[in-house]
Amino acid sequence: MFKDSSNQAEFELLIRATRNELFHFIIVQYQHLDLVRTVKNDLKVQYPERPFAEFNLENINSETFIHSILACKTGFIFIEKFELFFQEDLQALAIGFNQRRDLFSTFPIQLIVFVPLGGDTLLHFQKTMPDFYSILNLSISLKSEILLEENLQSRIPFDITNNDYDNVEEAKNEIERIEKRLKTLEDTPENTSLRYELIIQLANAYRFSADYLKSRELYEKLLHNFEQQNDISLETVIANIQNNLALVLQDLGDDMGAKVLLEKAINSAEKYYGVDHSITATGYANLASVLRALRDYEGAKELIIKAINSDKKNLHEEHPTTAIHFSILATILQDLGDYDGAKKILEQVKNIAEKTIGQEHFITASFYTNLATSLQNLGDYVGAKQLLEKALRADEEKMGINHPLTAINYSNLATILEKLGDYDKAMTLYDKAYQILLKHLGEQHPYTKIVEGNLDFAKQKNSIN
């Protein structure tokens, strides 16, 4: 049953609308697939005497779909992924469905369709299926409660072309080399481009080594300098800096600031390179990550699919960038409650990464982390624990024991250990993660707050046990 009052009120509207066994056409907009499951289960409890039929437009036989619905004749009919009706490959089926409005309405069925909350779904519905939309009896919207997140999920720099380091030690050596070079480089007009390029490399090295404030400072100065020149020929250079600065802002928890910069960078990329270029795809992927952090899961999903479509045209299927983009899609599917779909994708990208860049690479480690989250959501805590331990071995070797990415997996492993009843070790890892995140990200960062809350909760449970 729904616990929050807003969703309970919407569900009560649904109950009232379906009390009588007459034809009803109802749209349920949802933010998370768990809400779809709750609606279906609660209606089955409320009306145990009525028959129920379930369909999903991802897995239908288009030739028999309408006949199968008409064969039900009575009871509840649930249709998931109804938004797929508005895609070109199902257009003929949508037209046929729409034309049978009057026939459907002669049966005492409660036809309930599920569509994601947000976007232009209802507008597409009105345009594509106007006859059916005209007999809509009820539309409700269900939103997920904002709960404390246990798993942080490893977020790597998606623009891997800008990361030339295998580990933090290499990045620190690069910082030392570049700073020495900048001190000896004469500040002359002919050296301006070289100086800017070195500063960009320096900012990136600082970010890789988790000195986010220094990286932000360097990028902000560069951006200010270029914008002050008012030179339209520098637009793509500015867009690149905006993209890199946005990543640092997201590292620091400023998702809205990152969103603004990425939208500007994408506008420039689309203008100069087109929507299918790999540079544009990088912007789509980075903005998808930000929208996910802002809980705009459908918007994030739409963008990452655009990035993946670009990858299919420009990169081979086992390219690390392609794997990263699929991993982002999988984490969004997890947010939407599609744990099996996420698991399938993450197993594929894990296998690709192990084959192409090796088990000890930090990108592979991030795939282990995200797959572990899928296994946790599916109740496989032992499998999740094994993957996180592999991820931590890679993180500790490549990033070091005091890096925020390593801290994320300390926290994620602690969550699994809690599930397995090892509260003492979980508290130790939570505290270790908290101290690292507090140092690098500050006490107000969302990750720091989450780990602090998890640590307090673990302490409470340990005292009870």
Automatic annotation (TrEMBL):
Alphabetical keyword list: Coiled coil, Repeat, TPR repeat
Swiss-Prot/TrEMBL TPR repeat ranges: 365-398, 407-440
Annotated SUPFAM superfamilies: TPR-like
Family matches, as InterPro entries: TPR-like_helical_dom_sf, TPR_rpt
Presence of the UniProt keyword Nuclease in the record: no
Coiled coil: 161-188
Entry-linked Pfam families: TPR_10, TPR_12
Membrane-traversing stretches: none
Protein name per the record: Tetratricopeptide repeat protein
